Automatic annotation (TrEMBL):
GO terms for molecular function: S-adenosylmethionine-dependent methyltransferase activity. Residues 17-65 form the Methyltransferase type domain. It holds the Pfam family Methyltransf_11. This is Methyltransferase domain.
Length: 85
């Protein structure tokens, strides 16, 4: 059970936070869960993103990572050369 709650806004229930991934607009140790869906695949510096997520996570917080399967058809296509006629 979450013992605290932080609201980004009080005007609506559907709120998005748009920010740079490199500098999240949250205080240190203020987030319980950080969901990173297909973010590391497209980052120039994925290690920095993980450090930034760690900065905002509370102690014993959770990082949930989602990524592409490297042995899927899409993943294998990235590893094989493309031949052109």
């Amino acid at each position: 059970m979450v013992s605290h709650q932080v609201n980004v806004t009080t005007t609506t229930t559907n709120t998005d936070v748009m920010a740079s991934l490199n500098y999240l607009p949250f205080e240190n140790k203020s987030v319980d869960v950080c969901l990173m869906a297909h973010v590391l695949d497209y980052s120039a510096d994925p290690h920095w993103l993980l450090r930034e997520a760690d900065r905002v996570l509370v102690d014993d917080g959770w990082i949930i990572l989602s990524s592409f399967n490297p042995i899927s058809l899409l993943g294998i296509g990235k590893c094989t050369p493309i031949f052109t006629a």
